[in-house]
Amino acid sequence: MADQIPADALPADAPPADVPAGAAHHRLGAAVRRHLGRHPRAAALADRLTPRSVRARTTLAACASVAVVLALASAAVITLLRINLERTVEADAREQARTVARLATDGHLAGPLPLDHGTDFIQVLDANGTVVATSQNLTGHPPLAPTGHRNGHRTFNLDAPGHAHHHQRVTSIAATTPTGPVTVYVGASLRTADAAEGLTTAALAALSAVLLFTVGALTWRATGRALRPVEAIRAEVAAIGDRDLNRRVPEPRSNDEIARLAGTMNAMLQRLEAAGTRQRRFIADASHELRSPLTVLRTQLEVALAHSDPDVHTDLVTGALEDTERLQALAADLLLLARLDTTDHDWPDEPVDLADLVHTTITARGAEPHPVAVHAPVTVTVPGNPLWLRRLLTNLLDNAQRHAHRHITISLTTDRASGYAVLDVTNDGTPIEPADREEIFERFARLDDARSRDEGGTGLGLPIARDIAALHKGTLTVLDAPGTTTFRTRLPIPAEPPQDT
């Protein structure tokens, strides 16, 4: 049997020994929250002391995590050390008790019993509780009697000099003597174990403090270096205004998340710059396109107002009507472009027969300056908006009529391998140079030989046609054909369902 004798009593304000540490911590946290709730100023101060920056929060989290790990590891080390030392002391005390028990069995208990190294006292009691033999330091001492339990061990009242301020491990062994049974009590000092535990605790506390300081300093420095590019990116973005979209954020050389963030930001700024450039150019071109017919219209009206000749009035009103129609067409094109530029509409999916669309469009246009030959031998159905697809074809036909020399050809085929319907509008006009085949799809763009106002174009027909094709998940391109100009529109066709056999 092993017992522990704590010499010092617990402090008066200490929590009861049977209260778990977690419950005490929970009650302490609840008390702090109630206190802060009753004191708004304290709550505001605690809120101000809460770290705001990522750097401070990261450092605090790292230190807290390391502190928890160090606390658990230190507790484990101290516990294992304490258990090992107490087992050693208990083994020595038990060996001393066996020696005394053998002496008792042999009837050699006379005189003070010798103490081995690390043993504090020996006391032998008979069945009546009378002291039979003791060590020198317990001579005249009454029998040891338990006074209670603490930390899972029985406690004893021990008034022997020199043993009131440290723990002891008491071992008891029963033995049979010629005069009757006795119980041998041997007390081994835990002074060495207490000293080792205290020294180890102090060393671990100092080492933990050094490690926490090191971890905090390294985390603070590493986080600052890691966030320095982020701060540079933030500062540069904050300095970029709507007139400085040509500026770019610095890109770190490291191939990490921050470098990819900077690259993404620069790509976004490049898109914004391109969009801003297109918007400014569009506004300038639209202003120019609107100013020219308005100026001519005003001039015609002023001349008509200054002359009273009916023939002059008729000519001027006819010209004004033509400019008004041009303005109306330009406004309609601008409105359609605004609708196509919105991103809140879904992909149109109404079934549209392209062959029928081509024939009805040609018939509705009536007489044309140049004849149109149609080659649409098969029925091709695509999902789309019939009004917008009709507008696409109309714009391509208007462009072909303006630039054709003698005739225009419309061809409709299917490319089942790629799943597209192919609509070609070809005219025998002057071919478009390869360098100009993308420029003609820019809004208000005209080639040098196509700037005559007599041709009636607004510079928006081809861009509108390409936007409609893109809205239908298709493409509109210019083919490289000698002596002719072909605009090819490719629109996806739905897959044919498998046929039952």
Mean pLDDT: 78
Helix tally?
9
Strand proportion, as a percent range, falls in: 15-25%
Indicate the percent of residues in helices. 40-55%
Oligomer: single chain
Summarize the structure.
The protein has 501 residues and is an alpha+beta fold. The chain has helices spanning 21-38, 40-49, 54-106, 191-239, 257-306, 310-341, 354-365, 386-403, 461-471; strands at residues 2-5, 119-126, 131-134, 146-150, 153-156, 168-177, 180-189, 350-353, 372-375, 381-384, 408-415, 420-427, 475-479, 485-492. It has nine helices and 14 strands.
Structure explained in plain terms:
A hairpin with a 4-residue loop joins strand 2 and strand 3 (131-134). This protein is rod-shaped. The protein has a five-stranded antiparallel beta sheet. Strands 9-11-12-14-13 form a five-stranded mixed beta sheet. The two termini are 91 Å apart. The chain has nine helices and 14 strands. 50% of the residues lie in helices and 17% in strands. With 501 residues, the protein is α+β, with helices and mostly antiparallel strands. It has three domains: 2-9 and 20-195, no CATH class; 257-341, Helix Hairpins (Orthogonal Bundle); 350-492, 2-Layer Sandwich (Heat Shock Protein 90), CATH 3.30.565.
Helices and strands in order, then pairings?
Layout: E1 2-5, H1 21-38, H2 40-49, H3 54-106, E2 119-126, E3 131-134, E4 146-150, E5 153-156, E6 168-177, E7 180-189, H4 191-239, H5 257-306, H6 310-341, E8 350-353, H7 354-365, E9 372-375, E10 381-384, H8 386-403, E11 408-415, E12 420-427, H9 461-471, E13 475-479, E14 485-492
Parallel strand pairs: 9-11
Antiparallel strand pairs: 1-6, 2-3, 2-7, 4-5, 6-7, 8-10, 11-12, 12-14, 13-14
Helix pairs in contact: 1-2, 3-4, 5-6, 6-9, 8-9
